[in-house]
């Protein structure tokens, strides 16, 4: 069996590929940009003659290029984005040999894709966006194909895959705009400067589709993503019936009621038990608190507790403190139950809270030694204040703000 993980940008494909790889250690995870027998995104597709020319042109990179090279019949595939160099012209040069974005004729484009799908006979693979995303995006934005033309092409893809064992896992975005905000923050530099989004907007605004339809800007990009998702789900339904699953990864916040407090307390004690054992902070750990402390916080007029709901289950809880007096709003605490961690639910919950209370003027604190927590908050735009409180020889508390 093979798995194709598909969905819009920011839907969680990379995370799901990682989870599947952990759950199925005998499977091979093939991520975007790596060599794949069925996908050529971020790879140069060269003739042997051109390949030899590039080796001569970049002698200082020859070893790296050869390491990232794969031969297929009379062509050579180079995973050029995996080569490390400060020479930006190398990437610009090799990029022109990708098959996407009108760089080859439409007939050649279809022939390459169908031939590679037909020739592939592997098993035990987990492919990241290798069946839909890049092909559909190319056909929509650069070939300006109609939905029916794209579906007709995928019927040919289905024939090429005849007899092969695979299942498609499609991550449906319930909040495309929110997903876009997440990926914009994730793909920014250490100073918060966006890297991916300006390039994405330039790509979209200048593609043949936008030129033909007169579209541009963020709202039209979101509309395009919505259209693409609708089309991809239609492809699954009409072309691959019985061979796909649609997964919904969004979260929603449900206010905690007074009668829920014992449940919240039990969830909190369980969720923080591992950290309590690790750091032995019995005086301040949420894992050591009694029910009456939860009840006292719940009765504060400035406190709101929410269940974090995903997969039709309460996967965690977040508490928000908002005194509405101009002071910083505060998240304290937030947790995800152990069996639901690693799915992006904490990040989504914080973004949902920001929709309710506004995205600015926040504070929180966390354990300095828990690097995963630091990465999460910094990815969401929080910065360290410089204040660090020493608790014991095992742990320190670091304080964050978001302006």
Search tags:
403 residues, Aminopeptidase, 42% helix, 3 domains, 7-stranded mixed β-sheet, 15 strands
Account of the 3D structure:
The protein is an alpha/beta fold and 403 residues long. It has three domains: 2-42 and 98-248, 3-Layer(aba) Sandwich (Rossmann fold), CATH 3.40.50; 43-87, no CATH class; 252-402, Gcn5-related N-acetyltransferase (GNAT) (Aminopeptidase), CATH 3.40.630.30. Helices cover 42% and strands 22% of the residues. The chain is built from 16 helices and 15 strands. The protein has helices at 13-23, 48-57, 62-67, 88-95, 106-119, 133-141, 147-160, 176-186, 196-205, 208-213, 217-239, 261-271, 273-279, 291-298, 345-357, 371-379; strands at 2-7, 28-30, 44-47, 69-72, 75-78, 125-128, 166-172, 244-248, 252-255, 303-310, 313-321, 329-336, 362-367, 383-390, 396-402. The chain has a seven-stranded mixed beta sheet, with helices on both faces. β14 and β15 (396-402) form a beta hairpin. α5 (106-119) runs parallel beside α7 (147-160), α7 crosses α11 and α12 crosses α14. The protein is elongated. The two termini are 48 Å apart. The mean pLDDT is 94.
Shape: elongated
Overall CATH architecture of the largest domain: 3-Layer(aba) Sandwich
Instruction: Report the uncertain regions.
Output: none
Number of helices: 16
Q: What does the largest sheet look like?
A: 7 strands, mixed
Q: Which helices and strands occur, and which strands form pairs?
A:
Layout: E1 2-7, H1 13-23, E2 28-30, E3 44-47, H2 48-57, H3 62-67, E4 69-72, E5 75-78, H4 88-95, H5 106-119, E6 125-128, H6 133-141, H7 147-160, E7 166-172, H8 176-186, H9 196-205, H10 208-213, H11 217-239, E8 244-248, E9 252-255, H12 261-271, H13 273-279, H14 291-298, E10 303-310, E11 313-321, E12 329-336, H15 345-357, E13 362-367, H16 371-379, E14 383-390, E15 396-402
Parallel strand pairs: 1-6, 1-7, 2-6, 7-8, 12-13
Antiparallel strand pairs: 3-5, 4-5, 9-10, 10-11, 11-12, 13-15, 14-15
Helix pairs in contact: 5-7, 7-11, 12-14
